[in-house]
Design a protein that fits this description.
heterodimer; A: mainly beta; four-stranded antiparallel β-sheet; about 50% strand; B: mainly beta; globular
């Protein structure tokens, strides 16, 4: 069975500092990997996804993530955090084709940004 | 350009009551999904509909039923609500061909069962 682990429940950073959110997955085949962001009271917005090709994926809002098959990881990074990045972040794994959309999500990481 | 619309936004039920959560998308997407979100557990798939006229169980289907009324609408029904069904419910729809898929989420329904 597929699974996703986000080891950090809550991370606090100062505005302008760099950010890395960790994600480890378990999946039997080549995975589709996603990072979503959720602001309070809102639905989920896709930041980026990986399914093949270059293992460093660029997303919206200046985020990037690196797929490391040997470590079963897909960590999210941002060089300089803005106060507006405060939100909850979810890593997810799934498959393509007709199974796309049947995602397994991690528990989420809440990001707090100090001014 | 509404995207995925969920109604209601908030609902309080008593144990044993029934209700239907509505979801509609105006993007002509074939596939639609219902997820529930609980603190510390991320989102879990309840049911999905790959296309009009088909529905399938996800990870946590017990206590729920769904109807794909037409291509636009995918409803989730709780026949006899239980406190364990207190959660935030998200509907989503999918666009795109293989390799270019994207999910669009609604803004959620917050349900409390007392």
């Amino acid at each position: 069975a597929q699974s996703v682990t986000q080891p950090d429940i809550h991370i606090t950073v100062s505005e302008g500092a760099s950010l890395e959110l960790r994600c480890n997955y378990s999946y039997g085949a080549t995975p589709y990997l996603f990072w979503y962001v959720q602001s309070p009271g809102q639905g989920l917005q896709l930041l980026l996804k990986y399914f093949s090709g270059d293992t460093l994926v660029q997303g919206i809002k200046g985020f990037e993530a690196e797929f490391k098959r040997s470590q079963s990881s897909f960590n999210l990074r941002k060089p300089s955090v803005h106060w507006s990045d405060a939100a909850e972040y979810f890593c997810a794994v799934g498959a393509g084709g007709t199974s796309y959309g049947k995602l397994t999500f991690g528990q989420g990481t809440i990001l707090t940004v100090h001014p | 350009n509404a995207g995925v619309t969920q109604t209601p936004k908030f609902q309080v039920l008593k144990t044993g009551q029934s209700m239907t959560l509505q979801c509609a998308q105006d993007m002509n997407h074939n596939s639609m999904y219902w997820y529930r979100q609980d603190p510390g557990m991320g989102l879990r798939l309840i049911y999905y509909s790959a296309s009009e006229g088909t529905t399938d169980k996800g990870e946590v289907p017990n206590g729920y039923n769904v109807s794909r009324l037409n291509k636009r609408e995918f409803s989730l029904r709780l026949e006899s609500a239980a406190p364990s069904q207190t959660s935030v419910y998200f509907c989503a729809s999918r666009e795109g061909q293989a390799g270019y898929e994207k999910l669009f989420f609604g803004s959620g329904t917050q349900l409390s069962v007392l």
